[in-house]
Amino acid sequence: MPKSKRNRLVTLSKTQKKTKEHKETLVSTLRKALDEYQSLYVFSYENMRNSLFKELRDKLKTSSRFFMGGNKVLQIALGKTNADEVKDNLHKASELIEGDRGLYLTNLPKDEVLKFFGEFEGHDFARTGSPATETVELPEGPLEQFTHDMEPFLRKQGMPVRLNRGVVELVANYTVCTEGDPISPEASRILRLLGIQMATFTLTPICYWSNGEFEILDEEEAANGAKSANT
Questions:
Q1: 23, 50, 116, 202: which has the fewest C-beta neighbours closer than 10 Å?
Q2: pTM above the 0.70 mark?
Q3: Could you tell me which residue ranges the Large ribosomal subunit protein uL10-like insertion domain spans (predicted)?
């Protein structure tokens, strides 16, 4: 009897080696970037969307560079203590790399960077489990934005609908989601069909570093980071 593929042993040595090399490359790349860019910011993010973030990186690639993923690796690259930091006071920034955070290195002036962070927003559809930012209610009656062939799908999402002379119709008022409550999988699909975007992708600068100068920019976010590090 031939051996089952399910019983084959898979070695992880290559994967482990690749992961270690990736981390070492990230450390080396970040340290090199510290010599190429004048300033560094630790930032937090909410509702990250890869497509929107890619657009942002492309827009700023001539003057700036983002580093994200592997917070512990980023901390090692900067130095976690006063003794092993690669430049003066960088360990203070390293301490704030916790949770949903990243590094932004740039040659742009500080005031321009803070203006950019303050104005940047990206909008997208909310994901399942995220809190609804508003209550969405649909009144009883025709739903002319939906074609007749969507009626079975809408009914499957829990909407009380029927076809009336080829028009999708709600037979009762229906609440898609309630402000503050987690969005269900069904509500997420319906909101997407309605074109209602509730997720706002934002970046918040927490601290600034340049040539040994360190400054906290957001006391509340910095305190949250310190609290996470100590738990």
A1: 50
A2: yes
A3: 126-196
